[in-house]
What does this fold into?
Amino acid sequence: MPVKSLCVVVTRAPYGREDAFGGLRLALSGVTHGLQFTAVLRGDGVWSALKGQRAEAIGMPSNESVISDILEMGGAVWAEEGALAARGLSPGDLVEGVQVAPAGRLDGVILSHDATTPACGGF
Amino acid sequence: MGELTILLMAGTMMSTGPYKALRLAEAALERGHRVNLFCYGEGVTALRAKQAPKAFPNIAEMTAALMARGMAVAACRTCCAARGIEEGDVVPGAVIGSIAREFMDFVSRSDRVLTINA
It folds into this structure.
């Protein structure tokens, strides 16, 4: 059966490495293409959903903008509740529309897709 | 028979990821499956045609050999441009394309998508 849905799991913080931006860009392209693409932010990956990023200050493309675009195109973005709390963040700190759930529920979100792409690097 | 898409995000000499990806592709081809390889991010360096590692496997030669057996190969154009990789730099027959076109086409017809990023 052909793959109809894909979940991109981002575990790296933005701007230090390419992984987070690359993973989110992949999700945006999928959503734009009309497939069911979802981004799940876990661990340091939740930083990508923080409101008010000023990526232009370091001459980088904005992960916040990519997340806003995914949501605008009808895609879903989830952030791990425990990862937010561990970093002193709350749901109100995130881009509007990002859904927050505990780890166990996110496992279910990931497993509900036909395929998973971990955008978490290897080093 | 099924169809497998491998999303390769690991660079050619940064790890054994590309080697593993191609060994998996080879195994799938041997079993009669169709295989697509899409190179993304640092993974596009796996397609550089003039790689000449002295001790490690030559990823470009492995890729070319698998393409001769039917593996379809494409790479993200933006990722290539970011690394100064142009059409003439990659393994002949590999397409420098886009996520929106080649990758989505691969995904939409595949039974499995496997990501290798390390």
